[in-house]
Amino acid sequence: MKKSFRPRDARQFVGTYRPRIDGHEKASGQARYLDDIALPTRFPGLLYARVLRSPYAHARIKRLDTRRAEALPGVHAVLTFQDPEVASLKPTNAGWTPFFTSSYNRMMWPDHRDRRILSDHVCWAGDEAGVVVAAESRAIADEALRLLDIEWEVLPFVLDPVAALAAGAPIIHPEINPNGNQLPPSPGTASEVFLDRGDVERALAEADVVIEACSDYHNADHGCLGTRGCLMQWEGDKLTCWTSYYQADQTRMHLTQMLNLPLHKVRVINPYIGGSFGRGNVGEQPFFIFTAILARRTGRPVLYQHTRREDFHDTRNALAYTCRLGARRDGTITACHFKSLGDAGAYADHSMAAADYVVREYIEATLGHIPNLRVETRVAYTNRIPGGCKRGIGNNQINLVFAIALDMLAERLGVDPLELAIKNLGNQHGRVPDRSLEAVLREGAQRIGWSQRHAPGDGPSVGGTRRRGIGFSLHNSWHAAWQEVPRGHIQVSIRVNPDCSVILDAPTAETGTGSNTCNVLSCAEALSFLGIGPQDIHWISETDTERGLKDQVQTDSGVSYVQSEVMGKAAAMVKRQILELAARRLNVPIEDLDIEAGKIFAHSTEEELSVRDLLWQEDLVPILGTVSETLPDEVTGVPFTASFAEVEVDTETGRVDVLKVVVVHDCGTVMYAAGAEGQQIGGQPMALGETLTEEIVYDLATGYPLSFNWIEYKIPTMLDTPEVEPVLLEVWKGAGEYGACGIGESVTTCTPGAVANAIYNAIGVRLGAIPFTPDKVLAALGKIPAEGGE
Questions:
Q1: Closest C-alpha to 769, from 754, 785, 751, 756
Q2: Number of other residues whose CB lies within 10 A of the CB of residue 621
Q3: Which ranges in the chain are annotated with CATH 3.30.365.10?
């Protein structure tokens, strides 16, 4: 029987189990998405944009004739890379910013501006090429693209990062690196070694035990139900954009900076949005720009939206790792050396974030007490699908190799890997053993039955050919308040009406994570003195740059608490204003008054007045509390998470079935218990899919992707999903009122490593290259040749 979460500090609303605030709105179909807004009945004269897609992995347009396309009835505009309005646009990329609003000149990766709007140069089969059409229907626009007369120069391509870095490889982005395909390092980094402390080689040479583990993480797709797009409309010189991206302020910044418009001339509206899982963090997309230009050129509203196939775009970054660990016989880890090779695909996007930026955070948070540590990476362009940002960016990839390495080291030392982790791992800002880490590991071990774990390959058989095993992996969570400080000012506004109903403006585009419910619960908590609950609070669901408050983008699960951290200050402003009104009404000093359960009372007298009666007797102007505050920057470290998996491996067929996953998170403070458990459970199909079945397959002769659909790209169904036991703890506490930490990214991070170690425990052979498909299992068992073997 599942144990319900029990909070450390009992609160009225925060941390409770209750329905989502938008549950009825979504279930009844009342919630408005882009598809509900972008309709010809709402926008008379609506046009549909379609962009030319490259049929080649690498090519240039040598000659282009658009006359037949332009002559097709129903076509209103054909825009090409040759148009002066397009050719004059600045180069860009799809990774300006991680989670704060940034201008063009302050973008995160200034050396990676490798995208052009409607370029004649295409870098992967499916790339946006140099023509876009606006027509009265999608079918007409598609037909217009077929009528284009194009002569292509087909160029040599490369699909493998090793081959891409070899001498003589076709150079994909000479404007970024004229001498090869290696991406420039992160700003401030001079070489491939971007973190080096102590003396790794000496420590490894002096270690009693040294192991080496390898992993290969592929570029998994997000698998979102909704496809990306935007609707653009001009009214005079003012542009309005409705989009299914979750970055209202950053999208406005992108449009103004690329089109040379003042900020007040661009309005961006985010309605409800389907699941995103990180892909919205590549918001600087060319289609925003060419759709806006088409709308201006035609004088009509224009909708651009990906098809399902086109939405296979900006995947997880493919990264291959080698990890060497050295330790003394007493189990003290003395050295760690990571080497990685990343496949950026056709464009850089956030590749260096996955290979470098996020890895630095991981080293600080989890490997902070290993005295000798080096990390080096090379990231290459290839002519594959770009690797962008996906849930757990960078963390999942390094976690897989370290989970395997830790398990290998424990076996060589003859110790329990749980105890090895507790002895050595923790945040560099805290002590070892780390209380949070030990808590999640002990709790998960108890729930999975770790004490019954057998030696690798020695488990009893099930049904003759099937063997069972269990494994685990651990990681730090994302993100504590001090790591969210770069978001800048967090803005919320609370408006209390005379009847004590509340309108909450805490702008963030709800993507299904429940962050809006977290905001409403914290608002109700902060206003509990009014005697109201969540049912009395209306959260404004559309993020709209015209309302003036800066939005908090869903680039990481900090949105579950960052606005809650400033909610109390807005509520205090509301309370102060009510008390000022009451002081005048009752003719008593404000210091003598307080509010509780909707009643204003004086400490020195027996006078009492309800807040509602007071507000109805005034001038009926709502009480408004608006704050703009930065988060606390006290460095508090971060809490930990761990996943435990039980698997069953068929040694005859190679099939791996995951029977159970236990997901444990120390959250600091659980903001919304039902939502947090929903994240833990809902993240497992994604994690297990990329671990076992999902894979983008290419035709090696043409470079053409073959699995851009949900038949060949095998996403798990409900029938493939095992029992998932979510566990929430509150051990660590960060700075601020709640001291919470996000969990949405890390629910996928540990699962591949836990499954890898469980497979080894079951059959006694190690796998490191996901997905762990049956052929890889059988090859590891020696029953079929390995890929590329004789």
A1: 756
A2: 9
A3: 23-30+489-629, 160-222+319-415, 434-480+636-790
Residue 711 is classified by DSSP as T
Decide if domain 23-30+489-629 falls under CATH 3.30.365.10. yes
Distance from CA of residue 382 to its chain's centroid? 23
- 455 CB burial (10 A radius; 0-12, 13-18, 19+): exposed
In contact, 641 and 612? CB cutoff 8 Å:
no
Return the SS3 of 330: coil
What digits encode the pLDDT tens for the residues 255-294? Answer: 999 999 999 999 999 999 888 887 777 666 889 999 999 9
Contact indicator for 701, 683 with CB cutoff of 8 Å: no
d(CA 601, CA 618): 18
170 SS3 class: coil
Domain with CATH 3.90.1170.50 in the chain: 34-155+224-276+280-305
State yes or no: pLDDT of 99 exceeds 80. no
Q: Rounded to whole angstroms, how far apart are CA atoms 701 and 717?
A: 32
Contact (CB, 8 A) for 628 and 548: no
Is the pLDDT at 132 greater than 70, yes or no?
yes
Q: Rounded distance, CA 452 to CA 522, Å? A: 42
d(CA 161, CA 122): 18
Pairing of strands 229-235, 302-305: antiparallel
Q: Where are the beta strands (DSSP E) in 651-745?
A: 656-666, 698-699, 704-705, 723-729
pTM: 0.96
Helix (H, G, I), strand (E, B) or coil at 27: helix
> Is it true that domain 434-480+636-790 has CATH number 3.30.365.10?
yes
The residues that bridge with 336 in the sheet, in sequence order, are 325, 373
Hey, what CATH topology would domain 160-222+319-415 get?
A: Aldehyde Oxidoreductase; domain 4 (3.30.365)
Instruction: Copy the structure tokens of residue 75.
Output: 């076509």
Q: Are 270 and 543 in contact (CB under 8 A)?
A: yes
Cross-strand bridge partners of residue 75: 135
pLDDT at 789 exceeding the cut of 70? no
The DSSP 8-state label assigned to residue 367 in this structure reads: B
β-strand pairing of 656-666 with 723-729: parallel
The Cα 734–Cα 748 span in angstroms is 23
Q: Where are the beta strands (DSSP E) in 17-172?
A: 47-53, 59-65, 75-80, 121-122, 128-135, 149-154
Distance separating alpha carbons of residues 605 and 597, to the nearest angstrom: 18
Find the distance separating the first CA and the last CA of the chain, reported in whole Å: 51
Task: Say whether domain 34-155+224-276+280-305 belongs to CATH 3.40.30.10.
Answer: no
